[in-house]
């Protein structure tokens, strides 16, 4: 088969569409013939040499895909050859075939093609597990979503609105904020020109946000705590603004607040399967009803993965960039 390989750590130019050995599904796995995969920030980090895949997993980038099951490993039940699926992956989505643990499979939602289904698993599992399984966002609470026009952000807006939360977002242009508003965001903050802490306080009559979903990390750490409400929850899922920051613990104590940092790729199989099962139960009906939808900025051939990485690295897209085989 062919897959996108990383010849050495570096820029997008190190990505090559090359012949590689076919994967073989092990016990509890299925082999998926990939129709489409989607680009995530973690793929860029892996390409740069900062985010190696867990030992024993596919060396190729790609954390989600959609396609068709072509083979079953020993012990797989509930799935059959020919089933149309999308999948949460530990890696290997930039390829013609990928072996996937059966617990990380989802049926392609009714009404979606493979290109749009491929844009769902990683962002939906990330958002659902963090906003609802970790931060326990409730109806009528306020959530601040940083990077509202990103893949994570566009999904977080929709899911938070679907459960009745109030959504505040940051983004870096009027055009991106307009797209966030179209998805349901209630308060729009241009981080280039506005202080998001002041804007959050103004929008909440000084109370602050109950939950902050943060992709920035160190750069925003202290300010995120300042933006929290009493009993607020800061969930850090990205480190685009660095890995080391200072925090006034007294401010955290006064608010009885929590700072939580999570990732998805390195979790044990059982935890991933539980997240996928929760997504199938709670989110898939919303997708099939049209309440929540994948936001796809553009679709490119898999062989053009380097161009896709350039787009995401530059922050040119709204939502996801999808790669097709």
TrEMBL record:
InterPro entries recorded: ADH-like_C, ADH-like_N, ER, GroES-like_sf, NAD(P)-bd_dom_sf, Quinone_OxRdtase_PIG3
SMART domains referenced in this protein's UniProt entry, alphabetically: PKS_ER
Keyword annotations of the record: NADP, Oxidoreductase
All residue ranges annotated as the Enoyl reductase (ER) domain in the record: 10-323
Top-level division of the source organism's lineage: Bacteria
Pfam families, alphabetized: ADH_N (PF08240), ADH_zinc_N (PF00107)
Keyword Oxidoreductase: yes
Record has Transmembrane as a keyword: no
Coiled-coil segments: none
Descriptive protein name: NAD(P)H-quinone oxidoreductase
